[in-house]
Amino acid sequence: MNKSGSPLVFLDGAMGTRLKSLGEEASTLANLKAPDTVKKIHREYIKAGSQIIETNTFSATSVNYSNYKKLNRRGIRLAKEAVGEASASRKVKIAGSVGPTGKMIKPVGKLEFEEGVEIFKSQLEIMAKEEVDLIIIETMDDILEMKAALLAAGEVAPGIPVFSTMTFSEGDRTSTGTPPEVAARVMDSLGADVLGVNCSFGPEKLREPVKRMRRVTKKPIIVQANAGLPEYKDNRTVYSMDPESYAENVKKLIKEGATYVGGCCGTDPEFIKKMVQDFGKLSSEFWEPAPEKIPVVIASRTSWAEFNDFPVVIGERINLTAHPELKKSDEKIVKEGLKQKKAGADALDINLANQEERLPQIADKLSRRVGLPLVLDCQNPEVLKKTVRRCGGVPLLNSISGEEKKLENLLPVVKKYGIPFVGLCMDEEGVPNKVEKKVNIARKIVKKTTQAGIAEENIIIDPVAFALSSKPGSARNTIKALTEIDRPTLLGISNISSGLPQQALLNQVFTAITVYRGISGIIVNPMDKDLMYNMYASAAISGRKSSVNIKKYIEYFSPKGDTFEFEDKLSQAILEGNSPKSSEIVEKRLDGNTGLKIINQSVIPALKKVGEKYNKKQIFLPQLIESARAAQKTMDIISDRIKEEGGSLNKKGKILIATVEGDIHDIGKNLVTLILKNHSFKVKDMGVDNSAGKIVEEARKWGADIIALSSLMTTTMGCMEKVVKKLKTRNMDIPVIIGGAAVRKNYAQKIGAYYGKDALKAVDIAGSLLEK
Amino acid sequence: MKKIRGFKIKLRKREILRNLKYTSRVENIDEKTEKIIQQQVENTYSLIYPSAVYDTYLKSSEEFKNLKDDILFGSEKAEGIVKDSFAVTIMAATIGKEIEREINRLKKDDLTRAFILDAGASEAAEQSVNFISRIIRREAKAEECYLSNRISPGYGDWPLEASRSLIEKLPVEKIDIKINPESNILEPRKSITALQGWIQE
C-alpha cells in the first residue's frame, strides 16, 4: 500500500518501444550501447510517477546473449543510478525484468523443463546478487515456462518478492491454451506475490482475464497492457491508444480488481503520468477487493475444476490394482483417461499401485493427451516431487492422513509446490467410525497444515467410506461427517459396495445421497451413466446454488456439441460438405429462382458458418475443404446456368495467385484458390515456381486487383519482397497478400504486404482491400 | 556409413490428424471424413518406401573436423549439440516418389484426399527418421552414450543450406534423394536430413 493509503501502485511503461522511439535499438544491448538513453527513460518514468521501475533485462538470458551476466548487471546498475539521480521524494523500487527464454519447453517446444529452470536461475542469481527490490517475470505464454521461472526464483532468490504476468490472446487464453484461472492458480501456488497480465492486445481485451483471475486468488493483481493493438503503418509499428484512452480502459481493469498498474509495448511516460493523475483520487471502494474465500482449484494446462457447490467428478479407473490390464502399456492408460473424459470426468485419479515410479511419465502423457487435471494417488515424496515439478497445471495430492509421520513426509512437497491435497480422516489408530473422531482428525490436519504455513484453501477432507459388507452402519456416519466438516469434502464412492451384489446400484445411491449432502468431489467410475444421472439430479434437487446446479442439469441432458442446423437444405448440405446433395438441390432450385438469390440466401450463409466453425476449431481441415468443394460445385452449377442464359456472374475482383520462384509446394495455395473462388473472387492460378518478373508481368497483362503469393520455404520467401519492390518501381498500385508455412506476420509487415494467416483470413483481407 | 531400404514404420494417426489441424475442440469427425482418413492412411502405407542412409563420426576424428564447418553454418543450435557430443550421426531419410505422384494427381480434383495423403506422408517421413534414431540409440547405448535432440536444417537457426552439405556427405543416390541446388528443396519432397549427437553418460 502506498503512503496515501490507496492500494494502487504505479509501475513504469515500455522500455523497448520507448528506446526505439528515441532512435535506439529496442533491445537489452542498449545497456551497453546506449546506457544514457536507458537511464533517461528510467528517469522519465520516475518523474511521471512510477513507484516501481523495471530493469532493461527482459531478454538477457544465457540463451540470447553470451554476455548476459554483464547485460543484467549493467541493466540493474543503470536503474539504480537513475533512481539515485531522480531525487524523487518517494522511494522508487527496482524490479529485475525476466522475459521468456525464447525456447519453448516440452511438450510445446523441445527444451527440457529442468534446462529451462537452469536458464532462469542463471539470470536470477545475478539479480539476487545485485539486490534488486523485486523480480518481475513477464510476457509468458507457456504456463510451464512460467513455472520454471517461478521455481528458479524460489530456489536462487528466496526472500525477494516476485511479480509474475502472462500474456493472453483472443478467446481469453494464452497462445498455448491456458485460461486465466489456471494461470492465476499456478502463479499463486508457486509463490508469486503479485500476479496478473501484461502485453497482449491492449487493456480492453484484458478485462475478462483480470476478472477471472480475481475470483481464484487473494494475491494483488497487476496489469501492464500494450497501448492497444499494434498496426503496421509507413514501415513502422504503431499502437492504437493514446494516454487518455489507455487510462480510461485501465480504470475498468482497476474496477475488476487490479491494483498494480503500468504499461507494456507502445506506452511511454505520458501514459503513466495520465494514470497517476487520474487514479490518485480513486476511492478504495472503487475496485473489487480480493476475495475473502477462494475455492480449492485443481488444473491441467488447459482446464480446471473447482471444489465448490457442484461436485467435481474424478475418474477412478486408472487404478492398477483394480485394473491390472492397464499395467501393460502407457497407451492403455492414456486410452482409459480419454474414455473417462468423454464420459464426463472433470479430473483423473492415478493410482499406479506398485509401479509408482512410472508416475512422472504417465502424468506427463495424460496431461498432454487427455488434458484433465490430475489427482495423484501417491505417498512417495520423491516420486511426487518429480511429477508435480514439471506438471503443466495444479494437481491434487490424494491423500495425506492425520498420522504424524505422513504429515511430516508430505507437507513439505505440498508447501513447496503449492498443490492442494486431500486430508484423510485416519490417524495412528486407523480409520475411525465415529463422526466426532472423523471431525477431530480433520481439524488436526487443518491445524497442522496451517501451522506449516500452507494456505487453508489447499485442503480437502476425505471422511472415508468403509465397505458396507465389513461395517454395515458406517456409511451413515460418513454421510453425517460430510455436513459437520467445515471444508470441501471428497469421497471414494466405490469403497462402499465392495463385496456386495449389485455394486453399481449401491454406488449410485451413495452418490445421490452424498451429493445431496453437499460433497465437493467424488471419485467414481464416470462410465456408469446411471451414477452420473444420479449426481446431476441430486445436485439439482439439493437446492444449493440452485440456479447453477439446475443449469448444469439441463446442459448435461441437452444434446452435445454445436447442434446448429440450417433450415435451408442447400446451406446444410454445404455445411456438411455433401457435394452430391448440394448439387442436386441447386439444380432443382434453379428452376424457380435466380442464381444470385441462391448464392445470397444459401451459399453465403453456409460459407460464413463454415468459416466461423473453422476459426473456433470446431471443424478441421478435411471438413473445411469438403464444405468448400460443395460450395464450389454449387457456384459452378449456378455460373453455368447463367452462362447458358447469356449472362455472367458478377465477380468481386481479380486475384492473381502464385507459388513463388524455387518453391514447388502448392497444396496450401490450391486451398486458398478454392476458398477465394467460393467467395466470388475471380482467381487466376499461375501454379508453382514463378519468378517475381513473371508474376508482375502477368498481373499487369491480366489487370489483377490483388496478388496473392505462397511460399513454404524460408529460402524462397525472398521472391515475395522482389514482387512488392517491382510493383513499386513500376508504379503499380496492387496490394499483395502473402502466406504459407514459412511466412510470418512481421515478415509481411517488413516487406509491405498483407499477411494471410490462412485461407479464410486471405478472404477477409481481399474483401476489405476491394472495399477500399 | 549404413543404408537401410524398405523398412517398416508405424504411422501415428494422432499426428496425421494434428497435421490436419485437428484439435480437441473439433466436435466430431463425421463418418464420411473418418472413412476418407482411414482410406488415406492405408494408402499412405501402400505408397511409401522408407529408406535411409546415415553415418556416424567421432568428434575427435580428422574426418569430422574437416566436415564440421561445412555442416554447422555457425548455427548455435547445431554447434551446441556438437559441443556436448562424443560422436555425431548425420542422416537422410525418404519415403520415395510414388506417394508424391499420387498427391500431385489428387490435388487437381480431390483436394481433401490430397491434404490427408500429404499429412500421412509428412508423418511417414517423420517416422522414417525416428526409425533411424531408434537404431542409433541402440548403437549409442552400447557405447554408454545417450542421444541429444535431433535437429534438421531449416529449423531454428540452422539454415536450410546445411541440408545440401549433409546430402553431399552422404551417399544419398543410393536411396534416390536429390536436392535442388537453388532452393535447397529435397526431392522427393517428403525427405528429411538431420543431425543427432551421442552424449557420454
How are the secondary structure elements laid out?
The complex is a heterodimer of chains A (772) and B (201).
Chain A: E1 9-10, H1 16-21, H2 30-33, H3 35-48, E2 52-54, H4 68-86, E3 93-98, H5 113-129, E4 134-140, H6 143-156, E5 162-166, H7 180-189, E6 194-199, H8 207-216, E7 221-225, E8 230-233, E9 236-239, H9 243-255, E10 258-263, H10 269-279, E11 296-299, E12 304-307, E13 312-319, H11 330-343, E14 347-351, H12 359-369, E15 374-376, H13 381-389, E16 396-401, H14 404-417, E17 421-424, H15 435-451, E18 459-462, H16 474-484, E19 490-492, H17 503-516, E20 521-524, H18 529-542, H19 546-557, H20 569-576, H21 579-589, H22 595-615, H23 621-644, E21 654-659, H24 667-678, E22 682-685, H25 692-702, E23 706-710, H26 718-729, E24 736-739, H27 745-751, E25 754-755, H28 759-771
Parallel strand pairs in A: 1-10, 2-3, 3-4, 4-5, 5-6, 6-7, 7-10, 13-14, 13-20, 14-15, 15-16, 16-17, 17-18, 19-20, 21-22, 21-23, 23-24, 24-25
Antiparallel strand pairs in A: 8-9, 11-12
Helix pairs in contact in A: 3-4, 3-10, 4-5, 5-6, 7-8, 9-10, 11-12, 12-13, 13-14, 15-16, 17-18, 18-19, 20-21, 20-22, 20-23, 21-23, 22-23, 23-24, 24-28, 25-26
Chain B: E1 2-5, H1 13-19, H2 31-47, E2 51-58, H3 62-72, H4 76-84, E3 87-94, H5 98-109, H6 111-142, E4 145-151, H7 161-169, E5 178-179, E6 186-187, E7 191-200
Antiparallel strand pairs in B: 1-2, 2-3, 3-7, 4-7, 5-6
